[in-house]
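For reproducibility, we list the full input for the flavin-adenine dinucleotide complex.
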Amino acid sequence: MIDLAIIGGGPAGLTAGLYATRGGLKDVVMYEFGMPGGQITQSSEIENYPGVPKVVTGMELMESWPEQCQRFGLKHEIKEVLNVSKEGDTFKLLFAKDEIVEAKSVLICTGSKPRRAGVEGEDKFFGRGVSTCATCDGFFYKDGEVAVLGGGDTALEEALFLANICSKVYLIHRREEFRAAPSTTEKVLNNPKIELVLNSTVEEIQGDNAGVTGVITKNKDGETRDIKVPGIFVFVGMLPQNKILFDENDKSLCELSKAGQIVVDLKMKTSVPGLFAAGDIRIDAAKQVVCASGDGATAGIGAIEYVND
Ligand code: FAD
Ligand code: NAP
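The corresponding predicted structure, in tokenized form, follows.
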């Protein structure tokens, strides 16, 4: 029986591990199926993490976190948690091959993943011209033209990143106003390589055996446009990663919001004693590295109190 199982190794999970182990919990394991760092490692630049005044990539920002966060005994296991349940006071974590680990307390830090726009051709050409990661795939379109779909911080920031690599970026957004921060919007509006395709939806992503060949858009007047590009980056929001909470009857272990985020109080406690949630997965998250990290610290301290009670 371990003291605390942390599920997810992004900013929230890593920070929780640091606080829980430094605060005295002995047996703390962070389960992360990839490399620690979380979704920010896909970001091309981050300029709003306090104490890091230089603009750095997400990879650069997170590089030193595992070493510091594991210094006090946090263990990292490269495993995917399939399910979490509770019997009496004991949590059970299910892994592949029916492996089960028991824990006194559990912290869910599984974050979120990119949402699909649901347009024709998106799934068919995913990985063959349709991407959700400019840092990963932008270079394939060096000096070429690409499209970006979305109007939030991610879409605009990644459109700016792509404009540094590509000859032209078509930014397709369904409204006139952007959801992104004003400073980011300003940079986009002033970038001569970015053409705005506003009040427009993507009707279809077209392609052939080699991959994407173009995007058909439709504006609010019903006019269609055929934009010939070999790649489209889809940034239409994020989905909370909550599937591990559901049992075979599709019942969640703890209370969720309508959008599927975990309901917590100010101490990151969920509706189930001993179960905590932190970062992007929780209700009303600001979806920022600094906030996820702060949540992780709060939850780590909460777990110490719970286990030692
Ligand atoms: P995540 O970072 O999502 O980490 C969750 C981790 O859990 C992942 O590593 C995942 O592999 C793991 N996981 C999920 N399910 C399981 C499972 N079942 N078993 C094991 N492991 C699991 N924020 C800023 O502050 N500034 C920015 O400039 C900024 N730019 C961004 C740019 C992009 C392109 C994106 C996508 C996000 C950006 N963000 C930015 C938001 C920021 O990345 C998130 O708010 C932050 O990463 C949330 O941290 P987290 O720990 O809650 O979750
Ligand atoms: P977001 O803020 O939810 O924006 C999603 C965008 O996609 C919106 O413009 C939305 O349009 C559009 N959209 C949604 N569904 C669509 C569909 N089916 N077809 C076409 N367009 C669609 O998501 P995000 O940009 O990924 O950001 C997620 C969170 O992370 C936010 O809280 C954001 O602030 C944060 N974040 C912060 C930073 C930063 O601090 N620098 C960077 C990246 C992300 P509407 O506007 O019309 O709804």
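The chain has a mean pLDDT of 96. Residues 130-234 form a domain with the FAD/NAD(P)-binding domain fold (CATH 3.50.50.60). Both points were considered when choosing residues for closer inspection.
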